[in-house]
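New here. Invent one.

***
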Amino acid sequence: MLSVRAMGRGDVPACTDIVNHTIALGGSTAYEDPFTEPAFAAHLLEEPAVANVALCGGRVVGFQVCFDLGEGLYSIGSFTDRQAPVKGAGRALFAQTLADCRSRGGQAILAKITADNTGGLAYYAAMGFADWQVIPGDHIRKDGTPVDRIVKRLPL
């Protein structure tokens, strides 16, 4: 049974493991350097306006954050456990994150995805996001490769 709640300090170790495993796999996040737990907490717990975790049997199986860009816009980031995936975790997270952004008076959520992240592009399309703009070469990989950034938008 999946449940979703606000992320807390106690979730930082599990969430750090999830994002670092995703980074290590490559190709599905713009983050390329692993997080320490303090760095994770500073950037992905304290900075976002919305930060939620998905749990299955008490185990954190994913997290989602939204940064407030101002003027009712939010920028979303999503990570689920890829070592022991739980079907529906991303959808459950998004249902709560969507409700949270709406309750804050948001106008739209933006998903800024590197063009090489085919899984992320498919996920956000499945959640109802539409292509909004392409920013050519917006992200430079550690090896120097420029990657376009696809910005998808979901009106609230």
Notes: The radius of gyration is 15 Å. The mean pLDDT is 95.
